[in-house]
Write a structure and sequence with these properties.
Structural class: alpha/beta
Number of strands: 27
Helix content: 25-40%
Distance between the termini: 58 Å
Strand content: 25-35%
Radius of gyration: 27 Å
CATH class of the largest domain: Alpha Beta
Largest sheet: 8 strands, parallel
Number of domains: 2
Length: 517
Amino acid sequence: MDLPPGRTQPIWLTVFVPPDAPPGTYQGRFSVGNDQVSRSIEVSLEVYPFVLPDERHLWVTNWFNPGRIARFHKVVPWSQEHWPLLERYAENMAEHRQNVVLTRISLIKVTRERDGRLSFDYSDFDRWVTLFKKAGACKRIEIGHVAHFGKGGWRSKEIVLGDITATDRGTGKRVVLPPDKGLAPLLRDLQHHLSERGWLNDAMIHVADEPSINNIESWKIASEFVHRAAPRLRRIDAIETRGFAGSLEIWVPKLNYLPGWLDDFRAAQLAGSELWFYTCLHPQGYFPNRLLDYPLVATRILHWINWCYRLDGYLHWGWNSWSDNPFGTPGGRLPPGDSFIVYPGKKGPLDSIRWEMMREGIQDYEEFRLLSEKTGRVIERLGSAAGSINPRQRSDEICRRIVTSFSDYEKDPIAFRSAKRILLEEIATIESPPLVVVATAPPAETELVPGPVVVEVYGAVEKGASVKVAGARIEVEPDGRFAVRATPRPQRDTVEIVVEHNGHSKTLRRHFRVRPL
């Protein structure tokens, strides 16, 4: 890269580690210079002895606008030049672990035959889905909204089902069909088509965006219309109120509604619905978001919240809704960065740093899950002595080191990296000898109030292992079970557990937030 005089150029480096890379520390150098002088930065990369699974367990969708791609790359929408471009954008989504793609129902061409019945052409719909599935970005098909607000917009009391535009076979003219004549038969046929293609279990459909207390009753009528026409097609919506039980399979409340209404949403989740969350131009203030003027940790932490609160997915409306000049000064009525997180490059998408941070956060989620899975395997190997241990507890504790509530989270990057290092090291060592699982009651990272402080430490080790807690050797039962009390203090807020067996040693630490007197 050659720069003209007087220009400053920021540079972001992304390093990809092959799955078969041997663990260890790798050194590199990044150099800049001109004819007179050069400077270099030493780069150190530590590779841990485990591989992040390719499988994605967190649902992630950023709504995608194919028309903007055609416009900025100066191609005709849906032309033979447009589709290869879409493929490059799909591959970028997959590389960043997005696995849900918004799919417009208008991709299905509708024709009114001479006898009045409707026929449906799925060629563009199928090509779209197949393209994103091949790229790895479409584990789920998110079919777009079939209803909208009535007069007055978001505050309207009415949700209106959309009409369907069809081509009349006899005249060639476009005709508008009301919901019972157009949308209902289309939904019935769509369900059948998805089933035939083997995609029905991967599919879900939006009713209307952001129903609220103003119009939930009207929304329910529209939702029931959709359900009658396609009863096997799951419904998903970003929602701004409660009370959707029986009418919605995938609930997506905004992040700032979760602190006050979590019990209502959790009841739906326990009854079998999925619970996601979304952000858009808000929440702001104390809450994290992926806005341009927020610290990067505020973007990455979104998916720590997914893990911490057992939220199945994340939705954002703006992946590439570019302004006329996406590289210019942010402006308009929306907060900077709200409407897009990638940029149009010469041959495909250019990543923003926020998009890189989203990928990091989604990978963090998978690492929390991986530690939980590995802990579960150790529990199985230790047998009944470890039966009372929750395999998720340690992942939850490390997550809680950074996320203390929906709106309170650690913003110091040094503290964040420290927690991430703990996570990586525990994934790398959990299955190495000596085998041990430890839990505390209350869990680590809990705030403790002196008066006095009491923490129970319990767990299981291999038979014959020795255990020290806070420096004192404790009794281990013949089956490997142990339990003891500990007393963290403000000046000594970490409980240390040391296990030794057959020449191997392992040290575990559990940190607490002890309030000073």
